[in-house]
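Running low. Any example?
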Amino acid sequence: MTTVQTTAQQDIFAPISADLDRVVEVITQLSIEEIERCPAGIDALDTLDQRLAHVMETPGKKMRPAMTLLASKLWGVEPDDKVISMAVAVELLHVAALIHDDTVDDADVRRGKATAGFLWGNNFAVLLGDYVFATSAKFVCDTGSVRLISRFAETIAELARGELHEMVSNWNLPVTVDEYFARIYDKTASLFSTSAESGAVLGGANEDSVVALREYGYNLGMAYQVRDDVLDYESTTDELGKPANQDILSGKLTLPAIYASEIPECALAIETFFGLPEHERETALGELMDLIRHNGGVERAEKTTADFIEAALRSLEVAPPSVSRDSLASIASSVNSH
């Protein structure tokens, strides 16, 4: 697994750098163990370990396990094996969700690398995602916490519900802000919330503090997804590491378009765009994107991101001052730069 991080990330993760390295080592070991299970005579390139290694090595920010580790330290408890297991579980759950998300979207590229579905077909990708999902559940069981096992199961259900909601809502108009928020909670913020909450539970926080850390994760996750959706209107394919402008091309209305559609002219343009034959949409896309931008959709969505970040920072006030709290605050503040 690639462990390269930017200098800014290294600074934010400094209080838990050694523990985060342990998480990475555990995840890397999973594909190594598959080599040992491989029957003699089978070409290693055809075995599960090689394919696991591919989906595990795609560089990521490791935000979710970092949140678990940092939250566990807020009240003076050093991360133990249970915290490491939980951090591994949330990162594996994130990886599994990405595999399924790419498969549902029929995506060829994720962070500049070929997806599992593109390399080996969607059938294999679905099963690979299932394998990683199941493995993540094994690690959360190692915490011995019924509360966290239950919350983890709820999170898996929420992730699936988010995908289902997105599938049935694509190409359907209108989409309300509340419907969009419900969808991105399921798809993104649910795991952020669980990551922070689980760290607080394992770190011995009282119930009010656990709730506050859950709210931190919720608001951070909502900010992260809104910002990601804004980037689809602001960035190139090279900058994103995946095709740009794909949301509206695939019939998915995100917050910039939803806000802009409150203007009748823009709502009509979106409805007209959705009614075009597929081969005409690429030609019409640029004009529609400009219309959404010029009607304040992107600007309002950026303000919503800032509001969620502010709420996340307020939630951290429940914890005593520490370098871990500072790091969690820095993670929230860095969302607008991702």
